[in-house]
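A.,

Following up on our hallway conversation. Structure tokens first:
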């Protein structure tokens, strides 16, 4: 398929019966931009300076401001950039209206580019994380906004594997905590700083490795938690388990994530999201104009929502498909369920505007490598989750809470893979 067909097909898959609704959203945003009111979710993708705005007590929002000093030589000023984005939205809205017709639409080159921008702004946004806060969410993804608090909690356990002493790289890839001292990433990521010889996995000489969970957009890298050892490489799947220093106990500390112990009942069109550090892939088919519009910001933490697209079998190995990662290579990223916040998969491969491949972690529930590393899986179903959470929340309001808190924590660990009951801190 040529580029126009690819973009049209992806738009129809993503927006489906909501084509008219999305066209209306886009036109509303375009109209607001004529009044110099650029929507926050548009600024969050196109502009790159993020700050926190504190409102009423207990509330914090993340906004994005324009930094004039960050403008390169010959680059348009803020007003010109805003107008250029507005024109793209116009073209995108026109393309969406044509897509609502049954036949293959006759789109101009400008409409194809506008439709591509709409896909990246509304359909599959790559939302920046800064200071632990998620950037503004487009109206198409209100479900993501509803789960903001949980997402901001979960992302703390996902970080970048930093390197010191490597001759080529400053960092290797994404990894995430699966228990207090165990980190999950891809084998290809770990092979940047480790190697297997005579059945043993060891660090490459002269390289120091640590986890930086706070390596976010415009953040300063920190010497976080050192990677102390390697539990092993998996013999079949592209994954590795690393031994890392356990997190400290404070309100901003990384949290171990709950791995789903069983496949969800629905593997098609189930809402999920990917947290990772996308890397620019020179082999991708992304338009150079798209790259310029979105300022080509890579290697920072992003939340990318999407849907499951089923499973497929390759010989005796099972893989999971999803459409969360249109921005670049996100190997080692964490694929999470939006409903339960359990980890469904370890991200393997992705390509711009195409479906991605992940390891379905429930397939490894009884795996010897995971058992040896002390990794446990969440046993609760969605119904269990709602019931137990409700009961725990009710207990926290009684005078007996302090007496039973440790017991509740142990049960919660068994059920959900984490020892942090809601409202129990």
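Then the amino acids I'd put at each of the 425 positions:
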């Amino acid at each position: 398929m040529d580029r126009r067909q690819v973009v049209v097909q992806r738009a129809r898959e993503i927006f489906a019966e909501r084509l008219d609704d999305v066209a209306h959203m886009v036109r509303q945003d375009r109209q607001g931009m004529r009044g110099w009111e650029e929507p926050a979710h548009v600024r969050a993708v196109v502009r790159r300076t993020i700050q926190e705005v504190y409102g009423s007590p207990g509330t914090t929002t993340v906004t994005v401001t324009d930094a004039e000093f960050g403008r390169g030589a010959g680059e348009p000023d803020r007003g010109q950039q805003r107008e250029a984005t507005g024109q793209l939205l116009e073209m995108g809205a026109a393309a969406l209206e044509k897509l609502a017709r049954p036949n293959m639409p006759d789109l101009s080159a400008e409409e194809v580019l506008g439709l591509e921008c709409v896909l990246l702004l509304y359909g599959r946004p790559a939302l920046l994380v800064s200071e632990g806060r998620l950037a503004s969410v487009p109206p198409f993804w209100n479900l993501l906004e509803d789960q903001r608090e949980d997402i901001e909690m979960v992302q703390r356990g996902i970080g970048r594997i930093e390197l010191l002493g490597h001759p080529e790289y400053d960092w290797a890839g994404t990894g995430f905590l699966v228990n207090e001292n165990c980190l999950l990433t891809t084998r290809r990521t770990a092979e940047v700083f480790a190697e297997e010889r005579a059945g043993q996995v060891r660090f490459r000489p002269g390289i120091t490795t640590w986890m930086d969970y706070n390596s976010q957009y415009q953040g300063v890298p920190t010497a976080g938690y050192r990677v102390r050892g390697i539990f092993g490489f998996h013999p079949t799947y592209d994954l590795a388990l690393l031994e890392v220093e356990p997190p400290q106990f404070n309100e901003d500390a990384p949290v171990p994530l709950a791995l789903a112990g069983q496949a969800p009942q629905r593997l098609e069109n189930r809402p999920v999201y990917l947290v990772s550090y996308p890397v620019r892939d020179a082999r991708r088919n992304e338009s150079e104009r798209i790259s310029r519009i979105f300022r080509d910001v890579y290697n920072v933490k992003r939340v990318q929502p999407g849907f499951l697209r089923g499973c497929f079998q390759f010989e005796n190995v099972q893989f999971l498909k999803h459409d969360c990662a249109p921005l670049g290579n996100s190997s080692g990223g964490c694929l999470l369920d939006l409903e339960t916040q359990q980890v469904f998969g370890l991200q393997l491969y992705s390509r711009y505007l195409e479906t991605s491949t992940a390891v379905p972690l429930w397939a490894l529930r009884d795996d010897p490598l995971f058992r040896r590393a002390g990794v446990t899986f969440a046993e609760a179903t969605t119904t269990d989750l709602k019931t137990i959470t409700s009961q725990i929340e009710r207990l926290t309001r009684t005078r007996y809470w302090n007496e039973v808190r440790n017991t509740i924590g142990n049960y919660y660990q068994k059920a959900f893979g984490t020892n942090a009951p809601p409202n129990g801190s």
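The longest strand covers residues 302-314. Curious whether your intuition agrees with the design.

B.
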